[in-house]
């Protein structure tokens, strides 16, 4: 067939049947068809056809440009004044071959604007490509590229119910213009194992649908532009890089995904990021803003926030042994199941290890840390931190700042370090170290070991048989219930043994041994003071009763009295609390041969 050059309006169908045939439609010229045969038909058995459209091809009875046999290397150029249009029932351009190219500076409009079924095809758009919206349950695509190794570059505008659909491997899309969809912006053929590389520096927007729906293969998506709409990456090994703006939820994987998925964000994501299915490793590297939650799911996952990265919601580790690292922002991290490693970094962070054996570090800032179940290692870092170990044998460190540290259930070890800390062991056998500062330490239930450290500390054993050591500073030691051992250390200490048989040693300094009730040291469960130093230490009985000291004489039986006695096992002092002449309280002494009224506060 000969070349076709149209300089006047025509309704004749044109056929390009031999190699290198050329179709040229001049500016302002209308090529019009209402028959079922396309306005331009490409056929034959060889390759290479060329079409230049500067006028308008209008076909209301079928596709405007189509091939009736599979022809490769068809080149279509549509100029700024060119237009190819069909009715909503047909495709504007429909080609089956390979290595075809379409360049559009004008307008392509159809029920489906372009369908390319072959491989290694290319589309460049700097104009407008649009489809009429479908009706009912069928989605109408504007551009369909079905084969492998296809490429689309958009510097113009693509509009449709589903703007772009691909169904091959190694699909490449570079969008610098506008993609507008009603249901999908870009979609892969559903339930197919494909692959795509997509770069967006323009705009992709969808109202009420997905800006992107990926395949079950490998999708690599880079955005430096603007995306409005959800993104669903389906299955496979997927990567999303964002330095632009995304408004919508992002789902990485589906219920049966087994690939490693990654999100790298230095821009803004306004929506939740959810990894789902059996994703092997979920990775999020964030140095921008995520205005929503991040849910990592089931693998040994990684979240890293760097610089001033922000997640306004919560980072959820889910299953697996996760590593979650925060930024200078106020982070909220939840490790979920698994042996997680969580670091808050700077900022006032809210961190939870949850189940299994977690390592959680608050970093700088006033952090709130919860270990929950498992044997956890929890470190507050600098700042005034609030740490709760939860169930399990936990190791808790406050570091600098005025910290509140709770071991809760389990055999916990707690270090306050510097600052005025409030430390509670909770249930079971705990070891508490106050460190430097005026600390409050409470062992709770269990046979606890409580060490005050440097500073004026308050130590409480509470129930059971506890060991309390005030160490340096003017400390107050209260044993509570149980047979406790109290050691004041250096400084002027107050030692209160409480109920049951206690052993007390004041240590260096002027110490006071305090009794608050007659039940604190009975004849059956008498306390022992091991290092009473006369002229320096004193015994305070003023809260029990108004006693009268009678030396080593017998009780008169007329008033509350205190006396001392020397026996073969050493000296002891005794109290008649109710004035009936019998012994109600007894305390054994070491290294004392006599006592005077000056030894007591009565």
Proportion of helical residues: under 10%
**Mean pLDDT, rounded to whole units?**
94
- Round the Cα radius of gyration to an integer and report it: 41 Å
> What best-fitting shape do the alpha-carbon axes yield?
rod-shaped
Main β-sheet description: 36 strands, parallel
End-to-end C-alpha gap: 126 Å
Strand content: 35-45%
Which consecutive residue ranges, at least 5 long each, have pLDDT under 50? none
Give the total of beta strands: 66
| Annotation field: number of helices | 0
Query: Which secondary-structure class do the elements indicate?
Result: mainly beta
Structural notes for this entry:
This protein has 602 residues and is mainly beta. The strands form 2 sheets. The chain has a 36-stranded parallel beta sheet that branches. It has a domain of 64 residues. It contains no helices and 66 strands. Strand 63 and strand 64 form a beta hairpin.
Indicate the topology.
Layout: E1 4-6, E2 14-16, E3 21-25, E4 30-33, E5 40-42, E6 49-53, E7 56-59, E8 65-67, E9 74-78, E10 83-86, E11 91-95, E12 101-104, E13 107-110, E14 112-116, E15 122-125, E16 128-131, E17 141-145, E18 151-154, E19 157-166, E20 171-175, E21 178-188, E22 195-200, E23 203-213, E24 218-223, E25 226-232, E26 238-242, E27 245-247, E28 250-252, E29 261-265, E30 268-270, E31 273-275, E32 282-286, E33 289-290, E34 294-295, E35 302-305, E36 310-311, E37 315-316, E38 323-325, E39 332-334, E40 341-343, E41 350-352, E42 359-361, E43 368-370, E44 377-379, E45 386-388, E46 395-397, E47 404-406, E48 413-415, E49 422-424, E50 431-433, E51 440-442, E52 449-451, E53 458-460, E54 467-469, E55 476-478, E56 485-487, E57 494-496, E58 503-505, E59 512-514, E60 527-529, E61 538-540, E62 548-549, E63 561-567, E64 570-576, E65 585-589, E66 600-601
Parallel strand pairs: 1-3, 2-5, 3-6, 4-7, 5-8, 6-9, 7-10, 8-11, 9-12, 10-13, 11-14, 12-15, 13-16, 14-17, 15-18, 16-19, 17-19, 18-20, 19-21, 20-22, 21-23, 22-24, 23-25, 24-26, 25-27, 25-28, 26-29, 27-30, 28-31, 29-32, 30-33, 31-34, 32-35, 33-36, 34-37, 35-38, 37-39, 38-40, 39-41, 40-42, ...
Antiparallel strand pairs: 63-64, 64-65
